[in-house]
Fold this sequence. Notes:
alpha/beta, 15 strands, about 15% strand, about 45% helix, binds pyridoxal-5'-phosphate, 7-stranded mixed sheet
Amino acid sequence: MERNHIRETDPAVADALAGERARQENTLAMIASENHVSEAVLEAQGSALTNKYAEGYPGSRYYAGCEYADDIEELAIERAKKLWGAEHINVQPHSGTQANMAVYLSILEPGDKILSLDLTHGGHLSHGHPANFTGQTYTVEQYEVNQETGYIDYDGLRDKAETFDPDIIVSGYSAYPREVDFERIQLAADAANAYHLADIAHITGLVAAGVHQSPVGVADFVTGSTHKTIRSGRGGIIMTQSEHASDIDNSVFPGAQGGPLMHNIAGKAVGFKEALSDDFEQYAAQTVANAEALADTLSDAGLAVVSGGTDNHLVLVDLRPSHPDTTGKDVEAALESTGIIMNANTVPGETRSPFEPSGIRLGTAALTTRGFNEAATREVGELIIDIVKNYDDQAIISDVSERVDELTNEYTLYQ
Length: 415
Ligand SMILES: *Cc1c(COP(=O)(O)O)cnc(C)c1O
């Protein structure tokens, strides 16, 4: 048996870590931004690189002893270039939010104008929300989805761009189930003489696998999180054309960050290697097929699936038409007690508060990593329907829990 150093040093943390591992094993992760990385990525993130300061970039660091840090960062960049095809890649952002921060820093002055999607329509805090530095530093105007169709209102976006005259238009979302037409948004950016940032945080893996169109080579800047559908080490990434390379690198370090998290960059390198395999293309296609199967199951049962379906890894349900007295939080709590972990979410045209919103957001990326196919995902959809209809019925909650236990035993995660 390998020594368990944490257990010897710190039983309280060891207990919590063991609990978390068991929690992931014994529940179904349907939070759309989550996934399960491989043991190899876990090892990289838990490696001795956490000790290393490597401020700067490969070949030009501020400290000695960076030869292995250089190797790893170069591997991460080289693999990312193969995955996404960008001219220049920076793998140092600590998170997707830090990646966005570096892009804004590189081209905007305080007070400059951002045009982005409303948060309740699927946008992200780092796209200009008042509670975020972006909302406090820049002038923000928002575009929306069409509330009838659930699709981005591209004409509305173009018209807003014309009147607002933004310095940057942000595309890419946190709760948008449809394919994003990056070229169409680029046309609006061109017409407004604005930069275009495509934030593909959620769909990095789908874009890498070619199951979602790519904004690389279309938008000026592409950012992402590296732990969502791409399933690598936790953090962020920026992709851009060579002309912006040094501005972006300077904005990440020293502009927005200090020393890079080299252990996470090692996790990115390992995850990117895994994502270059044919298996990963298959994984990404299955993730989308599973989301489609889930959307069909829910809408066949009479639930209002926003936009009528999905093109990616997530499904957004508006509970109001079918269950006007049930909130997303009611469903989230009941599902959590059965072992299905997802989140309540705002929906376009939200009439409740963000703390008690009217929708639920479900993702298939983590289930697909465990080996779920369409049939198994449909079954999870049926369990979700049971709970939506009977969220306060203990007998049904315990039936669903039993079935979740069987599914987690059948589709194991870590051996
Ligand atoms: C998840 C997400 C991010 C960034 O997430 P971090 O938690 O900071 O890595 C940025 N933009 C969008 C659209 C996201 O969904």
